[in-house]
Amino acid sequence: MVTTQSDSVLHGSPYRADCPTRHILDRIGDRWTVLVVGALWDGSARFSELRRRIEGVSQKMLTQTLRGLERDGLVRRTVHPQVPVRVEYTLTEAGRTLRAPLRALEEWSIAHLGDVTASQEAYDRAD
């Protein structure tokens, strides 16, 4: 059987420049995505709650991240028609499946913080 370029794109090959999986990797590998998914793990949250939980995120970056996650089907935005309007964000089923791999990255970064910091300092001293 001959595999065409479009076949490999449909089946996912992130090492190919034209593969859509690269967009997905960009999304889930983003620092703010990791933190938003973590902040939504326990349930729904309003925008202001997310800003408080995720120190250092700007309003613009949080908005962009939430819109991207919503577009990709990883976060659901629910508008409650009341005065004032209440908007909540929740992980979708697909978004919840990201929690385990992203949690592993969180745990790895915490466990290896000292080693990475020591390596950075040694590297910087060598320059």
From TrEMBL:
Keyword terms: DNA-binding, Transcription, Transcription regulation
Keyword tRNA-binding attributed: no
Tagged with keyword Transcription regulation: yes
One Pfam family it belongs to: HxlR
Residues of the HTH hxlR-type domain: 19-117
Stored InterPro entries: HTH_HxlR, WH-like_DNA-bd_sf, WH_DNA-bd_sf
The protein's name in its UniProt record: Helix-turn-helix domain-containing protein
Protein species of origin: Streptomyces castrisilvae
